[in-house]
Amino acid sequence: MRILVTNDDGITSRGIQALTAAMARLGEVMVVAPDRQQSAVGHALTVASPLRAVSMELEHASIAYAVNGTPADCVKLGVSTLLPFRPDIVVSGINHGSNTSVNAIYSGTVSAATEGTLMGIPSMAVSLATFNSSADMSLAAEVAYDIASRLLDLSLPAGTLLNVNVPPIDRANYRGVKVTRQGHNAWKDGYDVRKDPQGHPYYWLTGEFVTLSEQEDGDDFAVQQGWTAVTPIHYELTNVAELNRLKGLFER
After folding, report:
1. Cis omega before residue 169 (within 30°)?
2. Model confidence pLDDT, tens digit, residues 49-108
3. Parallel, antiparallel, or unpaired: how do β-strands 89-96 and 2-6 relate?
4. Average pLDDT over residues 132-158
5. Which of 35, 98, 165, 183 could form a disulfide with 229 if both were Cys (CB 3.0 to 4.6 A apart)?
6. How far, CA to CA in Å, does 97 sit from each of 93, 107, 125?
7. How far, in Å, CA of 66 to CA of 125, rounded?
């Protein structure tokens, strides 16, 4: 199996190192990842400035490139230009921090996997639900290996990827895998107003992740209960029910 590994925390992150080692057990690993932190950039693409890809040595990878762009850039550039052959699967992660619920919309990690799906490649994103930079990645890496080993056989429909969120707990308390839906929780945003040395104001995003509704089949709830949440998501944005209602109003 030929596996493209990417992320949004940057090519030197502990998460991508753990993921690369896990994926090497499945086949040949090729890494194309941002050269710096790119969290919460969503599905942004670089269109107004040149992209540069620097080849580097990375343990467990046959090819590795650090790109001065977004996670979606990395997948698009890697598959179309940098790699000598098309990957069989794309695995993005292991992200520091949960990508459940609304976080999946903002996530560069999930968007990299989405880009793989847009290119017709079976793809998945993996996140460890903690921002602790020294957190143990071994459980998340093992989960990533298990799910990635099944990814081709799952025969996911076109446009669908797997969003995998692993709880930050020890193995003794780990409960296994649960297939979930995307939760309905959200951020209550705010901005901390500060001043630079010249006295000019600047703004730093803050916020609190709040529970809007506790759904037992939601990804947030599953992770809180010690399960890995595996959520099939897709980029089809059409509200079909509203589409039909509006047809009745406009198409007369």
Report:
1. no
2. 999 999 999 999 999 999 999 999 999 999 999 999 999 999 999 999 999 999 999 999
3. parallel
4. 96
5. 165
6. 10, 10, 12
7. 19
- pLDDT score of 211: 74
- Amino acid 217: pLDDT: 92
Write down the domain spans for the chain: 2-183+214-250
Q: Which CATH superfamily is domain 2-183+214-250 in?
A: Survival protein SurE-like phosphatase/nucleotidase (3.40.1210.10)
Confidence (pTM): 0.93
CA distance 173 to 71: 33
Q: Which amino acid would we find at residue 1?
A: M
Structure confidence at residue 219 (pLDDT): 95
Q: In angstroms, rounded to a whole number, what is the distance separating the alpha carbons of residues 225 and 91?
A: 25
